[in-house]
Specification:
- The chain contains ten helices and eleven strands.
- By secondary structure, it is of the alpha/beta class.
- The chain has a single domain, classed as Rossmann fold (3-Layer(aba) Sandwich).
- The strands form two sheets. The chain has a six-stranded mixed beta sheet, with helices on both faces. Strands 1, 2, 3, 5 and 6 form a five-stranded antiparallel beta sheet that branches.
- Helix 3 packs across helix 4, helix 3 packs parallel to helix 6 and helix 6 packs parallel to helix 7.
Amino acid sequence: MSISLANPVRGHSFDNFQGQPSGEMAISASDLNIFYGAFRAVRDVNLQIPKRRITAMIGPSGCGKSTVLRAFNRMNDLIVGARVEGDISFLGQNIYAPHVDPVEVRRRIGMVFQKANPFPKSIYENVAWGARINGFKGDMDVLVEQSLHGAALWDEVKDKLQQSALSLSGGQQQRLCIARAIAIKPEIILMDEPASALDPIATLKIEDLMQELAQQYTIIVVTHNMQQAARVSDFTAFFMVDDHRAGHLVEYGPTQQLFTRPKDKRTEDYITGRFG
């Protein structure tokens, strides 16, 4: 199966889907290949992400981690010439099927980016914005407070909700972006290097928050920080680049096992700093 991502088809939402994810898997990728034009950036990835766990994706720069992450909520649709071959299933449905609305995919599978990207609006409006455009009809004040509590930010901003989000520190801005993501009630939160631009104290707050969020959400995080992956994740996927510059999955399993008893010599070499 080959589906162009350059001009995504708008269609039915996940509300028409029946059933639950097979087993305890939140996302299943089968024979996943991702191309940018003629270049194959990712090849032959098979990966099952368990529900309500933290899965880390590690590997050297350019190995396809972020490309795979963005494929999980169809963010690559926005790149001209990108296309996917294979299958990514969420709730037992292929998210690249022609009838699936990519906007609805992104509502159900939220994303937090490497660089905090708050809107030039108030703290309140940053959290409310996504819910409002998705047609939220409930009590917005309650939703904003709940979301900020969920992102461990409420106590720091409750008295300045009408101040600009840009006045917050870098770590606070990143937690605000997490609050914005959870305000639209996703089932999965993707995080692409969420702490790479933060100081150690802010990084630890983000890591603590991730572990709290994993009680309600599935978290998938791309990180170059192997210590971070070892600290926060339940499962780890190690990617590297093959001779044709395509990223591929070398090893995937419980984090403790992958870091202490890796099955593949290349995983051991990367973790111990012999390459990468």
